[in-house]
Specification:
heterodimer; A: 590 residues; mainly alpha; Cytochrome C Oxidase, Chain A; B: 52 residues; rod-shaped; binds protoporphyrin IX containing FE; binds copper (II) ion; transmembrane helix (chain B); Cytochrome oxidase (chain B); transmembrane (chain B); membrane (chain B)
Chain lengths: 590, 52
């Protein structure tokens, strides 16, 4: 504390040393996942383009599963729990209620990750019978070892307990501050978690009732359309689970880093409420091409999806306006001349700004994906990874990395090892992704498939409208290489910071919004109301489609042979269990 | 940090985000142009991809 008093501005570490440790651990877990994910990313890039094939094509799905799971589950969600713990503790200005509880949920998340990772990496070793080559979507009939589903379940339980931790802090704070508005950052965290709890209903049913028993051999088949639909019930909100921490940083940290203040606190609350309401009843937009779901249901998902553009556009406005405010306070003038007055030499700013720019581009390809008919053109092609490397792979990932440059010193009382390297790193990510994602989009338009080890066929050639396949491959490889380099620079910069001596004066207070919470209608803070409406929308969007899927295919049929079959034991149990449950459920349905 | 180099304090009433509006309009214009372009490339230029 003494060093903090000298400089006048205590850091998060000075104020909350125990919580800072949890946050650092969560971020380290996240960055380890990022490093491994990047490694698998470059391996598959080189493999697909036939530049270098270190593994046999038979291992491609093992690599791709590792890449997908490490990036979009471990990297993003560990970062989320770290940043949310920081945000709640900081904005309520109180320590967590019980630090042992906090470590418990973190420990569960680590345990779950390790279990799933063992199952995935087992796919490389032929002599053992463990594998999970199911990609991050684990569609049946692809089957994983029970360790994979079990690990996923434990990881999810960890995140639920984390949410409970934050609700508990808020509840305790509320007792001491009756009648006060929920601080903005805590509000964002709580809304995110409400969305997460609703979304989790889908994945929990899919894993606990169907996939896990199926991989244990307790039931011998599942209804693939049902588990897929339940997956996307969760899968689309997950997209917002990645984005909402990035939004939290754009709304609360980026204005500060730009030298200004958030334009509007009420608008930020409205945006988060809209995400809670709309992010679940849209999952079917990932299934436009699935047979067995009527077009009418797909059309409802389409409509909800288009509404979902609204909060993103509101965000674009509020966030850019906050940057403009900063630029004008720094002396910027003119209609667009203020752009030059922004702190472009600061890696935290530049990284987040470039991330936002990429998100705008991703918005366009997202609108193509969301269209019911245009989607047919791009479905399952490389266009789709092209799209989400802009959104989760840059808007989210680059924001996380850039924000780390701002936050890390306050968690460690040590500066970042090299700011010039940090600046180069964020620019490198932007350039690398521009190349890689552009190549993926173009390749997708001419029909080159995703999730394919050898997208070259005998007696058939893809015909690009301009350029050549070789040029596209080159772009993909150069882009992927720059990205991998960027990831390595990011992590090494942090590792090198460890050896620096501690200093004081690194604290960075966050200024209040221009238009503060008192301008926001009270009803925005009514969490119960929004949760109830969100649930009603989910029921409206999903009851009929799910009922018709079960009605046509049966709860556990028509199945299809699992590939590969994981475990034989329990098949005796199966004979008793399946008829019992199906009888019970169909009786209950009538 | 370079973020702190504030020259003038501007409060809510003095601040009019004109530049932001300009940027958003530019973005909209790009979206519209790309939509129109897509229509020509994908629907008028090709045969039907999916029938029925
Ligand atoms: C080092 C940087 C990266 C490289 C070189 C890279 C490369 C690739 C490539 C080439 C594919 C397509 C493979 C195929 O469909 O056959 C892919 C898929 C994917 N990437 Fe990345 N990527 C990188 C970073 C990221 C990041 C930061 C994220 C998310 C945070 C991410 C998430 C994904 C996901 C979810 C898939 C789809 C996996 C699947 O189809 O199951 N990637 N990546
Ligand atoms: Cu979606």
């Amino acid at each position: 504390m003494s060093s903090a008093i000298e400089s006048g501005e205590p850091t998060f570490l000075d104020r909350f040393p125990q919580e800072a440790k949890v946050v650092r651990s969560a971020l380290w877990s996240s960055f380890i996942a990022l490093t491994l994910g990047a490694l698998f990313g470059i391996i598959q890039t080189l493999h697909r383009t036939d530049v270098l094939r270190v593994f046999s094509s038979g291992n491609y799905y093992t690599i791709l599963t590792a890449h997908g799971v490490l990036m979009v589950v471990s990297f993003t969600i560990f970062f989320l729990v770290g940043i949310y713990t920081w945000a709640v503790v900081r904005s309520l200005d109180r320590p967590v209620e019980d630090i042992r509880y906090t470590w418990t949920w973190y420990g569960l998340m680590v345990l779950g990750t390790l279990m799933a990772l063992v199952a995935i990496l087992g796919g490389f070793i032929d002599s053992i019978d463990i594998s999970a080559d199911v990609l991050f979507t684990f569609y049946a009939p692809l089957q994983a070892h029970p360790l994979f589903y079990g690990g996923l379940a434990i990881f999810l339980i960890g995140t639920w307990l984390a949410g409970a931790d934050w609700f508990r802090s808020w509840y305790a704070w509320k007792q001491e501050n009756p009648g006060e508005r929920i601080p903005l950052q805590t509000f964002m965290v709580l809304i995110t978690m409400l969305m997460w709890y609703i979304a989790s209903i889908g994945i929990t049913i899919a894993v606990v009732i169907f996939l896990l028993p199926w991989s244990l051999g307790i039931i011998d088949q599942v209804n693939p359309l049902l588990t897929r639909t339940l997956f996307w019930f969760w899968g689309h909100p997950v997209v917002y689970f990645w984005l909402m921490p990035a939004y939290l940083l754009w709304y609360t940290v980026l204005p500060k880093v730009s030298g200004g203040r958030l334009f509007s606190d009420p608008l930020a609350r409205v945006v988060f409420v809209l995400f809670l309401l709309l992010s679940t009843p849209v999952g079917i937009h990932h299934q436009y091409l699935d047979p067995g779901i009527a077009d009418g249901f797909k059309f409802i998902a389409l409509t909800n999806t288009m509404f979902l553009l609204l909060p993103s556009l509101l965000t674009a406005f509020t966030v850019v306006a906050s940057m403009e405010h900063g630029a004008r306070q720094r002396g910027g003038t003119g209609l667009l001349g203020w752009l030059r007055a922004l702190p472009w030499a600061n890696p935290a700013f530049t990284g987040m700004a470039l991330a936002g720019l990429m998100f705008a581009a991703g918005g366009f390809s997202g609108m193509i994906n969301a269209g019911l008919n245009i989607n047919y053109l791009v479905h399952n092609t490389l266009w789709v990874p092209g799209h989400f490397h802009l959104t989760v792979g840059t808007a989210v990932a680059l924001t996380f990395m850039a924000a780390t440059y701002w936050l890390w010193p306050q968690l460690t009382n040590k500066p970042i090892f090299s700011r010039p390297i940090a600046l180069a790193q964020v620019i490198l990510w932007f350039v690398g992704m521009a190349l890689m994602s552009n190549a993926m989009h173009v390749a997708g338009l001419i029909g080159i498939p995703r999730r394919t080890a050898e997208p070259q066929y005998d007696g058939f050639d893809f015909i690009p409208t301009f350029g050549s396949i070789a040029e596209l491959d080159l772009q993909l490889v150069v882009g992927g290489t720059l990205l991998t380099l960027s990831a390595i620079l990011f992590v090494s910069n942090l590792v090198l910071s460890i050896s620096l001596p501690k200093v004081s004066g690194l604290g960075q207070p966050l200024p209040p919004a221009l238009s503060g919470p008192d301008d926001a209608p009270k009803v925005l803070d009514n969490l119960k109301l929004w949760t109830a409406i969100a649930l009603v929308l989910v029921i409206l969007a999903y009851t009929l489609p799910l009922a018709s899927i079960v009605d046509r295919g049966g709860l556990f049929g028509p199945g299809g042979t699992p590939y590969p079959t994981m475990i034989e034991f329990g098949s005796t149990l199966l004979e008793i269990y399946t008829p019992l449950t199906t009888d019970w459920i169909s009786g209950w349905l009538q | 940090m370079s973020g702190d180099a504030v020259v003038t304090e501007i409060d809510h009433d003095e601040f009019n985000p004109r530049g932001t509006l300009a940027l958003i309009l530019v973005y909209f214009a790009i979206l519209v142009v790309m939509w129109v372009f897509m229509y020509f490339v994908e629907f008028l230029g090709n045969d039907l991809t999916v029938i029925g």
